[in-house]
Design a protein that fits this description.
heterodimer; A: alpha+beta; SH3 type barrels; five-stranded antiparallel sheet; 30% helix; elongated; B: mainly beta; Elongation Factor Tu (Ef-tu), domain 3; 2 domains; six-stranded antiparallel beta barrel; four-stranded antiparallel sheet; 2 helices; 41% strand
């Protein structure tokens, strides 16, 4: 085996969870608030895994208040304390970038529906 | 002032304890043997000649074979001298290994840069390119190289295309982030000249350090 591959195997974490694209995960990430450190949980869907060896990155996407938020986590970083798989995904591709458009569409429809409902309500008042 | 000869293995990522991530180069460092001690009496200066990596007896030339035989070690592939201000503490046959450096040390790494062949001004000197379209015929051209009547010549040292790379270069003040004494490996923060497998010289950083 290539020496670099071997070193990366030794330097990286030994027990990574078997995460796949489409899985729902909770990423336990160590953040610093002033002097204190605490663990923040970021839960969402894995839309991409890129890089190999110690450079492996996870892109996790979630919807926060109607806005899509994506975060990239280096899986071997000591700040990423744990990745808990909450639900297995059933997907047919490795990169789920199509979710970006799909979720935006969903949000737009929801907004549209809300606007229509509001309009209907206001016209009711007028009568 | 420590000098060690070695080889560039390749690059990877390194995580500091606080989670900071940076690129680091893995270097095979040593073991190196003192092959010869230069003395003012015989050679006119103080120096140590280091040798790295054994080579088959049949591959070495006769003088190298004879030199190695007097030390009863294998001939070496990579020989370099370390100039010194005073007589060295080391004697012929002494060995230096990767553990001569410790985590946190600053080192200078000297090697031969990757050869790029005959390169244009954009790659070689970082010139800007012209527009790609709109009838432009000035995509990667160097532009004007001087004026006409005055001075009526091109200045010496004008940056132009030509052979680029494959030249000795020193990257200074690289931090040693990890020492693997068992396998003789050094991990330094940042990039190092040369391609994978090329020879390098690693020495204590010169900046701020007195000669000696």
């Amino acid at each position: 085996m290539d020496l670099i591959d071997q070193l990366e195997r030794e330097l990286g974490k030994q027990d990574l969870p078997p995460v796949h694209p489409g899985d729902s995960v909770d990423v336990h990430y160590l953040i610093r608030e002033g002097e204190k450190e605490r663990i923040q949980v970021f839960s969402g869907t894995v839309i991409s895994i890129q890089g190999r060896g110690i450079r492996r990155n996870l892109i996790v996407r979630r919807i926060v208040q109607g806005e899509g938020v994506e975060r990239t986590f280096p899986m071997h970083s000591p700040r990423v304390q744990d990745v808990v798989i909450t639900r297995r995904g059933d997907v047919r591709r490795a990169k789920l970038y199509y979710l970006r458009d799909r979720e935006a569409e969903k949000v737009r429809r929801a907004d549209l529906a809300a606007a229509e409902a509001a309009e209907a309500a206001s016209s009711d008042d007028a009568e | 002032m420590t000098l060690i000869l070695g080889r560039k293995i390749g690059m990877t990522q390194f995580f500091a304890e606080d989670g900071t991530v940076f690129g680091c180069t893995v270097l095979e460092a040593g073991p190196c043997t003192v092959m010869q001690v230069r003395t003012p009496e015989r050679d006119g200066y103080h120096a140590l000649q280091w040798g790295f990596e054994d080579v088959k007896e049949s591959r070495a030339n006769k003088p190298q074979r004879a030199q190695a035989a007097t030390l009863s070690v294998a001939p070496k592939r990579f020989l370099r001298e370390q100039r010194l201000a005073a007589a060295p503490e080391q004697a012929v046959g002494d060995v230096v290994k990767a553990d001569a450096f410790a985590e946190g040390d600053l080192v200078d790494v000297t090697g031969t840069t990757k050869g790029r062949g005959f390169a244009g001004t954009i790659k070689r000197h970082g010139f800007a390119r012209g527009p790609k379209t709109h009838g432009s015929m000035n995509y990667r051209r160097p532009g004007s190289i001087g004026c006409s009547a005055y001075p009526g010549r091109v200045f010496k040292g004008k940056r132009m295309s030509g052979h680029f790379g494959a030249k000795r270069h020193t990257t200074k003040n690289l931090q040693v982030v990890k020492v693997d004494a068992e396998r003789g490996l050094l991990f330094v923060r940042g990039a190092v000249p040369g391609h994978r497998g090329s020879f390098v010289q690693i020495q204590t950083a010169r900046t701020g350090v007195k000669k000696g």
